[in-house]
Input
Amino acid sequence: MRRSSSLPRPPAGTPLAETHAWQTIRLLLPYLWRYRLRVLAALSCLVGAKVANVGVPLIFKNMIDGLNGEQATLALPILLLLLYGAMRFSSALFTELREILFTRVTQRAVRQVALEAFRHLHALSLRFHLERQTGGVARDVERGTRSISSLMSYSLYSILPTLIEIGLVLGILVVRYDSGYALIALLSLTSYVAFTIGVSNWRIAIRRAVNETDSAANTRAVDSLLNYETVKYFNNEAWEARRYDEQLAQWESAAVRSQKSLALLNIGQQAIIAAGVTAMMWRAAAGVVAGQMSIGDLVLVNALLIQLYVPLNFLGIVYREIRQALTDIERMFLLLAEHREIADAPDARELEGQALDVEFATVDFGYEEKRRILHAVSFRIPAGRTVAVVGHSGAGKSTLARLLYRFYDVGGGCIRIGGHDIRQLRQDSLRRAIGIVPQDTVLFNDSIRYNIRYGCPEASDAEVEAVARAAQLHDFIVSLPQGYETRVGERGLKLSGGEKQRVAIARALLKNPPILIFDEATSALDSATERAIQTQLEQVAIGRTTLIVAHRLSTVMQADEILVFADGRIVERGRHADLLAAGASYASMWALQQQEQGGGKPA
Output
């Protein structure tokens, strides 16, 4: 990500100490600069609309004076009426042209920022996604992109038009009348703006509390719904509802405080406007009585005040919304500024070739600095051969797959593929060369065909069905009323564990990579289906570099080498028969599993 400077990141769940408004705007400006010609054209239309808008009261003043007294003629009011109508239409015309010109800029900027945020979140490390909650991150991105549109709209449609109109009105008051009128207007405006900014800044902490509690409530709701089955297993619907309501109660309290402070702000704003209008009209009325001003002048001053204070009244709301939009955009830019723990080296190269060996060279690793998972692990999988890793739960077996995919970087040693340290390879080419059947298969809430085709989005229907047959899944799919178009539900909940795992197998086969990882690939299958798929997997693995992480030892008997893990270390290695003959850890595990399956003594 290209950032000249980064915003400070607050601790999770705490409000920011201050809003870095100008820094946030500066980060947003490059997205607008790409469309500078459209922006300039829209600003020209904006100026034209405001000039026409301020011209309307001037024409109306002349109409009033032209109709007043014995010198009133028919021709003059008709010409002024036509000009009055033309100015009114011009104001509306320029306003709509501005909208037409600028809408593309707004929507394209929103699209580009949203896409950049989406790509950046995918580029962040697995550690980031495990530590952050999906609901809160999604809400931050949603509010941030929506606020970009709000910020641009308010700036171009409210702030700039009002500033231009204020300048034109003050200029007319100074040129046509004395400076006292402009002074009263300026004092009113200054007081209004100072009061609005002061109170609105005070309200920022309250608004942030509303946002924080809203995000927390949304995160809690999403987390609970994603774990729907777990909630049902433990009959904890009421518990989840109470936890959600606790968060909603905090949001309610913050929202009430926000509304009360808003009422105080509105009362103060209206008091300032009322005082300014009263002083201005008193001065104008005195001028008419003294014969220094005409009735038309009184109408003109009144009309100018109305044109000035109506948008100014809305300006208070706009300021609050802009401040809130900046806060929301800032939170999204904090995500964009999040450090990529795993990034490509500047000179990273593409991984090429179909015959690739894999080597772990004295690899040390720990998810936390003080808790190591792997200790000086070394082994090699020659190109086209199969190595299996077995051991009890927590021995560090599945960590090997995560390191091979470079979800994390090793703490010591290195991992090589095709002779290259994977830290010197482009991550997209590295992961393109690896296919995996994970232990916990998570599917998209889409059709079975979509989930299988995810392994190769360009694959034809025939290719999808071919790998489904290879994964012993085709007959099940065609028995469904909607066949391959059957939707699998959120996270694949409509399918059984075995069905989801077969989808994962088909997806990996469709990817057709030179390196395969089976991470407990048949753990959710019954014995008959496991035997059928195991034979197919062995066929698929021929000619590919394959890493099998398994608990069931019966699935790794044909491996070229079996590694036995214990406490993050390799304690035994060899072929199946040799390990049984050694009579150590592997032989004990084999005997235990045979007894559990009723198979009697070990072979």
